[in-house]
Each structure stands twice: as C-alpha cells, then as structure tokens.
Amino acid sequence: MSGHPTPRVPKAPNEANTYEATLKKNQIHGWRLEICQKVRNFDSDIDNYLRTFLSSQTPYVAAIGADVLNMASKFEPKRGMEKESYAPLLKIFTALVAYFPADRRPSFYGGYEQRIPFPFSDFAHRHHKSKPDLAVSWPGDVLPSDRKIESPHCRQFSMAIEVKALNTDDPFVKYKNGRRTLSNTRADKLVQLAVNARNLLFAHGLLAAFTLGIYGEVVRIVRFDHACAVASPPMNIKTLEGLRAIQEFFWRFVHPWEGGPGTVVGADPTVRHLTAEDKAWLKTRIGAEAGSPFGKVHFEEARWVQVWDSEDNSPAEPKAYILFKVVDVNARLFSRSTMVWKCIEDTRLRPREGPGAQAGDQEELVLQIVKEQWRQCIRTPEKEFYDRMNSTIKDPADRIGLPNMVHGCDMGKRDVKRWETAVASKPWQSDDDLLRTHAEPSEDADESEVDREFPAPVIERGYVPSLPIPMHQTHSWRLTVGASMMAKERSHMRLVVDTVGRPLDQFGSTKELVMAIYDAIRGHRTLMERGGILHRDVSSGNILIVDKQPRERVPCKGILHDYDYSSMTKKPPLAADPSDVPGQIPALHPLERMGDNEPENVAELKERTGTYYFISVELFRSPKPNGDCVLHDTHHDLESFIWVLVWIVLRHVRHGHKRGREACSFVFKYGDDDTASSAKCIWLIDCVNKPLSVPGNSPLTDLLFKLHEMMLMALVVPVTIRSRLTYDTVLAAFETAIEREDWPTDDKALPFVPPKTEKLDTKSENFDNDPPTALQGVCFDADMLDSDEHDVDELNPPEVKHRKKRTHERFADEEESELPSFFTETRSDATGSRKRQRNNQGVAARSSAGPSSSRAARGSVRGTSGGSGTTGGRGTVGSRRAVERLIEEAMKKARSSG
After folding, report:
1. Strand, coil or helix: what is 423?
2. Cα(795)–Cα(723) distance, rounded to whole angstroms?
3. What pLDDT, on the 0 to 100 scale, is given for residue 385?
4. Residue among 204, 308, 211 at smallest CA distance from 263
5. How many CB atoms lie within 10 A of CB 628?
6. What's phi and psi for 559, nearest 5 deg?
7. Torsions phi, psi for 491 (to 5 deg)
8. Residue 22's pLDDT is what?
9. Which tens digit of pLDDT belongs to each residue from 96-141?
10. Strand ranges (DSSP E) for 250-331?
11. How far apart are CA 521 and CA 513, in angstroms?
C-alpha cells in the first residue's frame, strides 16, 4: 500500500436516505461507477476463453443440424425491433441444446416483460428490480414456453441474456486507437448485465455468474465474479463457427468439473439449496412457525453449506450448516459482498450414538452466525484477527462485546492449495481432490463419454481436460492483465461465530440500542488494548444486538464484528518489547506506540477505510492542505460509534428534529467527501441552538446532548483547543445514561420509509437518451487499470456537483452558519486566539449546563438574561460575536475559493 490515503470512488449506497434514491434512475449512476474499469476483454480467441473459464471433463462434440443453420440464416435483427428478436433467439438456443442429456439440458424463457426482485425478501426494498430479456433454466428444468411464470424469481434461473437490436450496440467494441469511451448509453448496457449477474451470484451463492449479451448478430459471453467481469471475443450467431462456439459454451456450462446433473460452471460445490428433506428437518429443529427469535424465515432462500477449519493439505472433514435467515447483506457486486446468516449445524451428518438414536434431533438447539465475504487478497485474512483475539483475550469474561470464531477458514487459500496440489499430480488429503473429483455422468449418458483416467492437466486443446482455475479466489485480473494485478483479486471467506444477533435497526427498546453500542465500544477497547487490533470499519451493520450466546460467556447486549478492514500491531501490546517504542510518539497513536512503526504498517493506517456514512470527519479531510496524511486511530472509530447512534436515532426513533424522516439525508451525505464532512459539521453547529431531542426519552436525549458536546470539542472548535474523543469519556457518557431508571419500555425501532423529496436525480428511465457525463473518455483498458487512484470529481456527473452547490445554499438559507469554524484553523494572531478561547468557554458552559437547561443556555449564547455565573454578561456576548465572526470569515473564505 502506498503512503497516501486511498481515493474513494463512490458506488451505489447500500441504504438510501430518500425514496428517490431507491429508484432505478437514481441508482443507475452508482452502478456506472461500480462497473467503471471493472470490465475486461479477453484478448484471445473463443476457444481459449472457453477452456480458461469453463473447464469440463466431458468432451464436447459439435452437433449443428441443418435446422439450426436454417433458423440462424433467417435471423435478421433490425433497428427499433429488439423484441422481435426474442422468439427466433429462443428457437435457435433450444435447437442447439436439443441433443444434450435430459438432466443436463437447459431450457430458455422469454420473460422480458416481467420484473425480478432482489433475491432476499427482507432486503428487496433497497434494490430496484431487474428485467432480463431472456433467461436460462438450471440443467434439467423445463421452463414454460407458452405462458409467463407467475412471480418469477432469479432462483429459477442459472443465466440471464440481454438483447439489443444492432451490432453497433456492442459495448465491448474497441475503436481504432485500442481504447473505448464509456458514455452513459454504453455503460447502461453493461449495467443491465451486471445487475443480472449480481442477483444470480447472491441468489445461488455462486462463485462466478455467466450472462450473454446479444447485439444484433454479435454474441458475447460475460463472466462476472466479485473482482471484475471478463467478456469473450465476439461470436456471430449467423455463422457455423459462431453457432459451434455458442453450443460448446452451453455444453461446458452444464458439464462443470465438479458436480453432477443440475449444476453449472460457477456454482459453489460446497453450497446447495435446501431439499424437501432439509426443509422438513429445519422446521422441526427451529419450529414450524419460525417465531421469535427468528422472525419470519423464507425457507426457499435458505441454503446448506460446508465449512472447513483447515487451509492445508491435511485430512479434514468439513462441518455442515443450514443457513436459514439473512441478517445483513452488502449487495454490491465488485466488493466484499458480505453476507451474515443465522444458522444451525446440520447434525444429521454426525454418527448416531446407541441403537435407535437419530443423529442431531435430540441435541440442544445451538444458534450460530455464518459470515461469508470476498476479502481483498492484499488484506490480512479476518481469521488471523480472530487468532490474535483468541491468543490474547482467553478469559470469556473479558470478551464482552466481542464474538468468538468457532469454525472457518479462507476458502480461497484452501482452493489455491488444492489446485497447486493437483497441478503437481499429488494427492489431496480431503475428499474434494480435483484429480479424483469427476463430474458425475448423466443417467442417460454413455459411460465412455467420461474420461476416468487422464494425465496431469495440460493446456493443449483436445480431450484431455484442462484443470479449472480456483474459483474461491478470483483470478480474472491476473488472467486478463497479468500477475501484477494480484492486488485487485478477492478471496472467499466463510466463518462461523458463536454469538447470534440482529441488526441495530431492529432494537426492542432505545435502552437496548444504547447498551448494544456501549458493549461494542467496550469490546473495541479490549481488542485495542489487549489484542493490538484497530477495527477501522465501525458501522451500523457491524454492530449486532445479541440474542443468544454460549452459556460460558458473560452476558452482553452487543457485539462488534467484521474485522477484514482492521489493522493489527506486529506484536500484542502486552508482549511488545519496550525497546520497540519509538521516541516522541503522541499518546493517541496506539498502533505506533505498541511497536508497529514500520513504514508499510504506517501506510496501512493512512489508507482510508470504513462505511461511508460513518467515516470520521478528519479522515474525510485527509490529506490535509499541507499534504500530511491522517493516521487512522482510536478516536476516529469512537467518532464512528457516535455517528452510528445518530444514524439509527434519525431513522428509527421518533425524534424532535424539525425535518422528521428527511433529517438523515441532511446529516449523512453520500458520494463526495467535502459535502459529507461539511454536512456533519454544519449539523453539529446547528445543534448548539437546536439540540437533537427524543420526546419522552430523557436518558437518550441527554446522552445525545453529551455526545454532541464531545463532538463539538473534537471537530468544530479551533484546532488549538480541541480535545480528542477517548474511551473513558465516551464510555462514561453511555454508562451515565444506561444507569438511569427513567428509560421508556415501549419504544422499539420504527420502520424507516425513505421520504419523498423534490431533489435528487430526475433523469428519465430511458437511459439510452441520457446525455454523456464525465464518464466519457474513461477506458477499460489495462493502461488505465494500474491504479485505483482516480479523482472522485472526475467521476461525479455535473448534476452531482450541482446538487452539492444547492445543498450548501439550502443550509445557508436555513442555518445561521454555513461552514464550521475549523476552516479557520490557520488563524494565529492573538486576537483570533482570544476569540477562540471565548468561543470554547461558551461551548464548555453549555456542556456543563446540560440539556435540561437548553433554553437558558441558548439565551446565554444570544447574550440575553438566560445565563448565569461566568457564562453571562459581556463575556457571553463576546463569545457569541466571536463565533459569528469566525463563521463569517469561514464562509467568505469558502465562497472566495469557489
């Protein structure tokens, strides 16, 4: 990692603050940014593409009949008549696979008029529906050709097909200079494929998803994983060679290296949907009604998975789990794509004890959590953080706020070692040896069609199969660009933790919410001081309210999980050698103080990470004007905890903010660092006179007030008098609130319905008519892909910059100040210093007065008779005027700089 903070390219947010942001027309720009520079062309012929990405042990034999050639010759796509192409394409594809074994034969469906929701019902409201032109069934399934499927779902399909009328619609075409501009029109054709692929990946737990793009007579195969997409060379559907390539693609697709009939290339051999027997057993174990604490269980969304503990070539048996309820999901395509599930172990696989015993049915039900994600290969695997946690925090009584990993490994590392073992023609000790794992033949297939013995894998074409690339770790960048692109690859993690929880936005009472965040902060402190681990991604999704945990654990209300963005000291703090302590290190740089001061580790701390809405204001403003980078530290994570509480309150509590449900969209901005940080600071200043309150809930109101004052002193007051957030001060505020006995008991979380506003993107749903944006000129080619360092403004369309300007204008109209006073940090004259001192006295006086004295405090700030003691009289008037002057100067400076 470089010593500079990583520039952030904004994507579509997982959670929208307004109704308009949930619409397809407003999510589309985020998708454009997500796929930008993540789509690759395969620079070889179609045969090499098929051998590389669709390895099969069952040889393909071409069978192109005269009827197929006749249908293809009559296929005449025309401008403006896209839908007229659907029926002939369905007939051609059906004829191409007609000779496949029945249990391997896919069918094709023309559901172009139907919208398909996001795969998981509890999160479908966050994502717009997709509408593929054509779809492909799972092998052996027969989709109706004469009627529409009622309420179609992507679980019914293995592939999606998008059709455009003309050859010139192909978005993968390179121009003469070898580069390709990405206008909105071209980007949106890619977005259609990407949305379909994303839904397929999540619906089935796929490792890779295939889509077809048909542009006039041109057919492209596009393979998506969580790192990038790779498009095949073009195939012409009207030529014999093109038809042969398409037929071979379908053949290979339904004859994967691992798995029998009914599976496809890209499917995870360690995952399957539940059978009828699985569902019956699950209902027996958790209760047919699946009531509390499970909530509604969508059994059709559940899945069965295997979990390994070892990444090495050693004899090991996996454990089996049934994942029955999604707790949280990061639905971005090219990302970690984290999924958190409630699960139980499939104890049916255990040996039975005693005569007549039925394995698993009599055991106590143990609920656990399975987390799946695709970590960046250059990051430390999350399992290593858990290993450090287990070695330094051994006593269960000390693990308040922290989960415990009980099973799991880096599936990507394991898959690569399995592949390397097979390449060396050595035996793999577990049952999934690639050299022994043969695809099961179809029931009506000739046994001679399947090679039972073959030499070490080779690259040459023929009936000797090429070993499939490891798919639990992506290889797309390395295969299309080179080994130098390893940093862009991702590795599949599957971990089981012992503590079951639910998201913060499902709290049963506001006291439970506050206690959960409090315990998470306590866990963060223990992890930092005992384990030398800094979380660096505190968010609403990474804190769970505890429902159930092992009996030996000390009860707690919340846990902090998801450590894949964390940093870790070279040695645990208690094991660090005092000689490692560098000289003159500030007290609040624990990762350096604890002996982790090597350049590459400091660079890691400079890298900006976190969930966008909750990132610290100071990190948003890194690097500073003088070029210095901010090191990510404990006080930044503490600030994120506070933003999480504010976020939940503004969305799920009946609060007193004048904007009601719209308040969250004004405090939490997305996509532009300056706008996001300024909005938070403006809100902090506004709350000096209009503190955020929760009617009928004094403990929460007072806690918000106290945290607000801490944030003012940490972020807004002049830099010379700031005081950073510390564990002691933040935890003390939470403890004071929790100890109170006047908490309400009937204030569970309110559902958040994004409000409708008059702002945001109002572009037409017809994206082909969109005007070009700043995305034009961005290329997909390798010379533009060597770095992620792209200017965020370069990727912001004009309407985003215009919204930013209007946002500041709106704040200026409504509030007494537009920009926080920390823009005046460079003032060093004595008069300015005295003014800052008086400003600080006014803030401190308000803090000591407390929210119950808010009216008097406000009167004091205004110089009225409401104040008392040292906060009254001319001193207070001076503080007020000092604040006004500082803000006025900041506004002038900001406006003069544009």
Report:
1. helix
2. 36
3. 92
4. 204
5. 10
6. -130, 150
7. -125, 140
8. 58
9. 999 999 999 999 999 888 999 999 999 988 887 889 999 999 999 9
10. 271-273, 303-307, 319-329
11. 13
Q: Residue 802 is encoded by which pair of tokens?
A: 């215009």
CB atoms within 10 A of CB 391: 11
Residues 776/823, Cβ–Cβ less than 8 Å: no
How many angstroms separate the CA atoms of 102 and 480, rounded? 35
Six token digits for residue 112? 């172009």
140 C-beta neighbours (distance < 10 Å), count: 18
H or E stretch at 789: none
Please name the residue ranges forming H helices in 317-432: 382-392, 411-423
Check: CB of residue 878 under 8 Å from CB of residue 720.
no
842: tokens are: 């006014």
- Does the pLDDT of residue 765 top 90, yes or no? no
Collect all residues with Cβ–Cβ distance below 8 Å to 291 and sequence separation of at least 6: none
SS3 letters across 318-333: CEEEEEEEEEEECCCC
Give helix then strand counts, H and E, for the chain. 23, 20
The average pLDDT across 771-790 equals 30
- Residue-wise pLDDT tens digits, 717-740: 887 888 899 999 999 999 999 999
Q: What's the pTM value of the predicted model, to 2 decimals?
A: 0.77
Are the CB atoms for 45 and 239 separated by under 8 Å? no
Q: Are 860 and 872 in contact (CB under 8 A)?
A: yes
Would you give the DSSP letter of residue 712?
A: I
Nearest alpha carbon to residue 37 among 780, 782, 790 = 780
- Whether pLDDT at 768 is above 50: no
Q: Which helix (H) or strand (E) is 141 found in, with range?
A: none
Phi and psi of 503, rounded to 5°?
-60, 155
Inter-residue contact 313 to 429 (CB < 8 Å)? yes
The burial class, CB within 10 Å (0-12 / 13-18 / 19+), for 432 is middle
